Every structure is written in C-alpha cells, then in structure tokens.
Amino acid sequence: MSPTPFPAILKSVDVLSDEVKSFTFEALQGTPFTNAQPGGHIDVLLPNELLRQYSLWRWAEDGRSGSVAVKREEAGRGGSQAMHDLKIGTEVTLNGPRNNFPLKEDAPHSILLAGGIGATPIYAMAARLTALGRPVQVHYLIRSRAHAAFQNAFESLGLGNALSCHYDDTHGLMDLGGMLDAAPAGSHLYVCGPEPLLQAVLNAAASRLPEDQIHFERFAADPSALEGPLDSFEIVLAKSGRTLRIPANRSILEGLQDAGIRVDFGCMEGVCGACIVDVLEGEIDHCDSVLTSDEQADNTLICVCVSRAKGKSLTLDL
C-alpha cells in the first residue's frame, strides 16, 4: 500500500554548510514519521508544484517530525532552489516515508560510504548501527573541509576510528579497491553519492563482494539504462480489459495519465519506486534504478515512469 500524503509545516531550517541546509517538517496531524527507517525518503510537494524526493537523515521518536538535507544546485531542476527559498511556517504536502534503500541491521560488518549530500541516508544508517552496537565503518567523501556539511553530525556519533573523512583537495582520490580489500569477511557495502563516485565504487566492489552485499542509491536515473532507440508498444489493463498504445516518445505513466487512469508517481526518473506496478504478461525493458537485479529478472514489477516493453505488449495488473 502506498503512503498517504499529509500536510506538514516547516518548523526549522539549519545551515549545515554554505551549500547545504537541513529542513525539519512537522506533521499537522498524526505521526507519519513513526515508520521511518534508515535509507527512507519522503516526497515533498513544493508550493510551485514541483515534486521532489529527499532522504530523511533524522526524525523524532514520537513520529511527528522529520528532517531532510538539501544541497542548493544552481544548475539543477529547480527543486533545491525552491527548498532553499522556503520560509519557516510554510505549509507543504509530504508523502511517505518509503524505503528503497533498506539497512540490513544484523550484517556481520557494514561499510557506509557517503559522497557529498549522499550523507543524508548514510548518516541515518550510521546512527542506527551505532545505537545497536553493530560493527560499522563510515567513509565520508567531500571536496574539502568547508563542504563537509555532515562531519559534525558524524563525529557526534562517537565513531572514533570507525569514521574516516576524506577531502579531495587534501587527500586526492580515495583508494576504493584497497578499502574494500581490507574489509572484514561478510561486509555489506552501502553507498550514496554523485554518479561518478557511485560508478567507481560499484566497479571496485563488483569483483570483491557478492551482489547481495552491495547496496546503493542514486540521485537520478542510471544514464546507461536510458540509452538506445525506443519503440511503440501496447499495454493491456487486466482489470478493465482496455488496451492502450504507448508511442515511442511517451512513457507508460504518461499513457495511463492520458487515459485518465490514476497511478502513484514521484521522481519520474525511476529512482523513487512510487510508480511500481505488477506485470502479469510480457517481457519488461527495465530502465529504473530501484529494482534489484533479481527483481528485474523476475519480470513481475515495472516502474512505469521509465521502463517499457521489450516486445509488442505488456499486461499490467491495473
């Protein structure tokens, strides 16, 4: 079941660095953050109708409030600028939390690697594992000490030698292979950060860790998944028997919306998982960055905002 949208008010804004601010939202009713878990995120519907997803980095035990951190991106799609322009007391609509980047709390050892603003889910994981007394090593990679928005937060966890802060301007590029070679047996790796760093980590980990011990979250869709020509195809809606033609220049989600069929959605890039639909028949051309390789191989789930049919038709459980 999808989370229900709820109204919230911006209670406070904290400056973490010259680029990053933390925004704490309080629900106007209920305790929607009660089910928040490390790696989870919320959707934020901004006053200008932009919908953006941000990872929770902390939340209140009573479930009334939660905080996200946002880096201002001057060349971004407008979401970060709109967030940074929010005033305390502004009412917004939130949705969630939902979690596509869950933490395995009982792993023998966890390696948490955060690149820049990718520290938001990683900090929540570090805080949880520290509270549980689980073995963990945290690597925080940033351009310089001046950009280390989360260093104070990480240091407040009392990690000691289990925390490594790596500044590019001082230390150069991190030896990812060496770090992984030194990891204890059975280690699970969690990484979130910019695409170049993510690709470098995944490349280094591919020959060193089993796939089911590598966990990651992207800021945007995997560029390589969206390459190649697109063809038109049909979708069959099993519950109504309707058939819709999806042109080469339209997504399944857009086709459903054009036909007046409501489907949950969020990022529109295949990274948030809000638009996942069950597939009953047909082969899927997966273009998302949410489903695991095993889930994609099962051929039973599709992110309708980006993924398509490999053949002429797909039958959806709609």
Terminal Cα span: 14 Å
CATH architecture of the largest domain: 3-Layer(aba) Sandwich
CATH class of the largest domain: Alpha Beta
Estimated share of beta-strand residues = 25-35%
Tell me the overall shape.
globular
Number of strand elements: 18
* Spatial arrangement of strands, main beta sheet: 1-2-5-4-3-6
**How would a textbook summarize the main sheet?**
6 strands, antiparallel, barrel
The average pLDDT value, as a whole number, equals 92
CATH topology of the largest domain: Rossmann fold
Describe the structure concisely for a colleague.
Helices cover 19% and strands 32% of the residues. By secondary structure, the protein is α/β, with parallel strands linked by helices.
Q: How would you describe what is shown here?
A:
This protein has 318 residues and is an alpha/beta fold. The chain has 3 domains: 6-98, Elongation Factor Tu (Ef-tu), domain 3 (Beta Barrel); 109-217, Rossmann fold, CATH 3.40.50.80; 225-316, Beta-grasp domain (Ubiquitin-like (UB roll), Roll), CATH 3.10.20. The chain contains 8 helices and 18 strands. It has a 6-stranded antiparallel barrel. Strand 8, helix 3 (151-155) and strand 9 (163-167) form a beta-alpha-beta unit. It is globular, with a radius of gyration of 20 Å.
